[in-house]
Amino acid sequence: MPTPEPPDGAPDAPVAPEIAEIERALTRITYLSTRARRHERLMQLAGVPLDRAAVALLRHIADSEPLRPGELAHRLGVEASHVTRTVQQLERTGHVVRVPDPDDRRAQRIRLTDLGRDAIGRIRAAGVRGMQAALAHWSPEDLRQLATLFHRMVDDFLAYAADDDTDRAPGPAPASAPVR
User: Fold this and answer.
1) Phi/psi at 14 (nearest 5 deg)?
2) Phi, psi values for residue 68, rounded to 5°
3) Could you state, in order of their start, the residue ranges of all structural domains in the chain?
4) Is the pTM of this model over 0.85?
5) Which GO biological-process labels does this protein carry (predicted)?
6) Residues near 23 by beta carbon (within 8 Å), at least 6 away in sequence
7) How many other CB atoms are found less than 10 A from the CB of residue 42?
8) Which helix (H) or strand (E) holds 109?
């Protein structure tokens, strides 16, 4: 296997082959998890007719306290106009509502409704069932180790992004859930 090129900003620094393989695996899993057909199948299994942007927004809101649309856009890494359109769509379908921001009554935050909580619960349950089927032959110890390492990796990515992002909004990065 050829030696990977050093990352930008690190001239002549060798890249560990393990890091290159992790990046390759993440690219593959990202491709598999973001395919339109996979999303359509997941929505069919969950019985939820939402597009990918709406599901991403619902997932994020479900994992946090109600947030302002601008903060949601920042955390998702998209333009505020994308969040505004998606929030409007989710409001029309009854999945989210706008609530006053307790810190600034002129501002609003986005909160899930009971319908939104039910939808994200069904989407997650359908996703977990698929993952459970795919990993059925893995031992419980391997699954625990993978979950622990994934959370550790995400936390390190978030910390790296926070250090690298000078435009970062105030407040801590979202923490991952502990693995039991």
Assistant:
1) -70, 150
2) -70, 150
3) 17-134, 136-166
4) no
5) response to stress
6) none
7) 20
8) strand 104-112
> How confident is the model over 170-176, as a mean pLDDT?
46
Q: Give the count of alpha carbons within 13 A of 78, CB side only.
A: 16
Closest CA to 152 of 179, 171, 128, 132: 179
Sequence-distant (6+) residues with CB within 8 A of 133 are: none
Amino acid at 156: D
CA 59/CA 124 separation, integer angstroms: 9
| 37 pLDDT tier (thresholds 50, 70, 90) | confident
Does the domain at 17-134 match CATH 1.10.10.10? Answer given as yes
- If we measure between CA atoms, which residue out of 49, 153, 60, 76 comes closest to residue 110? 60
- The pLDDT, as a whole number, for residue 2 is 53
| Residue whose tokens read 């942007």 | 53
Number of Cβ within 10 Å of residue 122's Cβ equals 16
Measure the CA–CA gap between 87 and 167, rounded to whole angstroms. Answer: 23
Look up residue 57 and give its two tokens: 């927004």
pLDDT for 82-138, tens place per residue? Answer: 999 999 999 999 999 999 998 888 899 999 999 999 999 999 999 999 999 999 999
Burial of residue 38 (CB within 10 Å: 0-12, 13-18, 19+) is: middle
